Each structure stands twice: as structure tokens, then as C-alpha cells.
UniProtKB/TrEMBL annotation:
The keyword Transmembrane applies. GO terms for cellular component: cell division site; growing cell tip; plasma membrane. This is Pali-domain-containing protein. It comes from Rickenella mellea. InterPro entries: pH-response_reg_palI/RIM9, SUR7/Rim9-like_fungi.
Length: 202
């Protein structure tokens, strides 16, 4: 679920204009912003909110800090990729249960959770600043959050749940398997001692 949500967010505007982080309306004309730009732009790594986009000049929205934050949105497709690797690491679990496979799956899922959470926090920081600046300007320009914000939040929640389930279920199976093996070994050892010549009374 988290992987699917992260993929949807990763193809937001300008690739998929129906998925966007913020909607800026200038003079009644709507413009959706996503990871690699807005719906009227070519995809790019990093962008700003200049006069040609929002209809007025704002030094805060064209600052290097804002530009760098838009670059950091690349964390979304990275998080989606790590989630996919975590999904792939599930496959060995259906054939064997071991400490290595369980720890491997848990680590991939935890890393995906951290990346998904970090990318969502960047979304909130970046687009809250943009929305507030545009609303403070007033006039015939407005801005509001888009659905990608909430899709990203849902991805965070899904990844957290997945990590919790994997920890409780997979490690539980490993512990149960390990306890069973230990019991078998103790039984074999007791039988060997029982029939060992050293145990016989002379």
C-alpha cells in the first residue's frame, strides 16, 4: 500500500496533473505543482515560484532555500524505490524463516518509513511556506493544499503499520523457530547422555 501511494505521489504534476501538492489560482486560472514542476512546465529537478508562475515577485518564494526544498522532493521516488526493495525482500520469507531474512526485511521497511516520513515533512514545510506567502499577498491569487499532501501522509501511516507488523510477525516466527530448535537439541543431548557409557554404573 505504501509503495503504491508513494509511486502515485512520485508521478504528480507535471506528469500527472490530477495529483499535486499545492494549487495556485491566479486570476481564476489554476496551476498545480508537483515534484518536478507545475502543470504548464517541463519536468525539472528543482523549481521556484517566480512572477511568471504566480503573477508577482516574492523574494522568499524565489530564494535558494525554496529552490533546494523543491529539489528535496526527489525523496518521494527514492522512498518508493526503497519500499519496492522491501517488498522484494519479502519473497524469501515464504520459503524459509531465518534471522537474516527477518532482519533484512525489517531494515528495508524501516528505511522506507524514515524516507517516506522525511519526504512528507519536507512537503509540509515547503508548501506551508508557499501557501502562507501567497495568502499574505492577497489580491486575485489564492493557494491551497492538493491531494498529494494527504496521499504522502497515508503512505507514511501505511509504512509505519507495515514495519510494526513485520517486527511482530516475522521476529515472532524466528523466535518460535529458534525455541523449537533449542528444545530438539536439548532432547537429543539428554538421550545421548542417557545411553552414554560414561553414565553407566560399574
Amino acid at each position: 500500500m505504501s509503495m503504491a501511494l508513494s509511486i502515485v505521489v512520485s508521478v504528480s504534476a507535471p506528469t500527472l496533473n490530477s495529483v499535486y501538492f499545492i494549487d495556485v489560482v491566479v486570476g481564476g486560472r489554476s496551476n498545480h505543482f508537483g515534484i518536478f514542476g507545475h502543470k504548464d512546465s517541463a519536468p525539472s529537478f528543482g523549481y521556484d515560484f517566480g512572477p511568471s508562475v504566480i503573477g508577482y515577485s516574492d523574494s522568499q518564494l524565489t530564494s535558494p532555500a525554496i529552490h533546494n526544498l523543491t529539489k528535496a522532493l526527489i525523496l518521494h521516488p527514492i522512498a518508493a524505490s526503497v519500499s519496492f526493495l522491501g517488498f522484494i525482500s519479502l519473497i524469501p520469507q515464504y520459503f524459509t524463516v531465518s534471522t537474516f531474512t527477518s532482519v533484512n526485511q525489517a531494515l528495508w521497511t524501516f528505511l522506507a518509513f524514515i524516507l517516506t516520513l522525511a519526504s512528507w515533512l519536507i512537503d509540509i514545510i515547503l508548501f506551508t511556506i508557499v501557501r502562507r506567502a501567497i495568502r499574505d499577498h492577497g489580491g486575485d491569487i489564492t493557494a491551497g493544499f492538493g491531494n498529494a499532501i494527504w496521499l504522502a501522509l497515508a503512505a507514511v501511516a501505511a509504512q509505519f503499520i507495515a514495519y510494526g507488523l513485520i517486527r511482530s510477525h516475522r521476529f515472532g516466527k524466528v523466535c518460535s523457530s529458534g525455541t523449537g530448535d533449542m528444545g530438539d537439541n536439548l532432547w537429543r543431548e539428554s538421550q545421548l547422555r542417557k545411553y552414554s557409557p560414561e553414565e553407566k554404573i560399574v
